[in-house]
Amino acid sequence: MDCAKTLDDLPPHRQSRSRGRTREQVDKARKLRHSPTDSEKAAWHLLRSIRFRGFKFRRQHPLGLYVVDFYCAQRRLVVELDGSVHGQPSQVRRDTRRDAHLKEMGYAVLRMPNGMVQEAPEVFVQKVLDAVWSLPEAFG
C-alpha cells in the first residue's frame, strides 16, 4: 500500500488563517492596520507596553462580522476606541447592535473615547487592565 500523497490529494491553500474569516475581512483588517488614526497609534503603543503583564493584544482583528480595534484573545476582550462620530444616534444604534452581537459570541466589549488615549493614557491603561483582570481565562 502506497502512503505517498499527490498534490491533488492535498487540501487547497487557504486564503485566510481561520475558516471563520473571509478574505475580504482579512484584507479590510490589513488595510485598517496600515492606516491607523493617531488615537489608534497611541493606544497600540500603550497596549503593547502591558505585554509584560501577560496580556497580548491584536489590532484591527476580524471577529465574526466585524473588524475590532483591539482584541485580547486570552480574555476574549474587545477594546473599541470611539471618536466623535460615535455620539451620533445612527452610530450609537450600530454600535449597540455590534456590541450585542459580539457579546452573544462570548466577547466582552470595552468602549473608550479617543480623547482618553491622548489626554489620560494612564487612565486608559488602568481601565484596560481592570477589564482584563476581571475576565476569566478564555483557554484555561
Overall shape: globular
What separation lies between the terminal Cα atoms?
42 Å
Strand order of the largest sheet: 1-2-3-4
Any idea what the CATH architecture of the domain at 37-132 is?
A: 3-Layer(aba) Sandwich
Short précis:
This protein has 140 residues and is of the alpha+beta class.
Written description of the protein model:
The chain has 140 residues and is α+β, with helices and mostly antiparallel strands. It has a domain at 37-132: Endonuclease, Chain A, CATH 3.40.960.10. 43% of the residues lie in helices and 18% in strands. It contains five helices and four strands. The chain has helices spanning 23-34, 38-49, 89-104, 114-119, 121-134, and strands at residues 58-63, 66-72, 77-82, 108-113. It has a four-stranded mixed beta sheet, with helices on both faces. A hairpin with a 4-residue loop joins strand 2 and strand 3. The longest helix has 16 residues, at 89-104. The N and C termini lie far apart (42 Å).
Keywords:
disordered N terminus; Endonuclease, Chain A; four-stranded mixed sheet; single chain; globular; 140 residues; 43% helix
Break the fold down into its secondary structure elements and pairings.
Blueprint lengths: L22 H12 L3 H12 L8 E6 L2 E7 L4 E6 L6 H16 L3 E6 H6 L1 H14 L6
Parallel strand pairs: 3-4
Antiparallel strand pairs: 1-2, 2-3
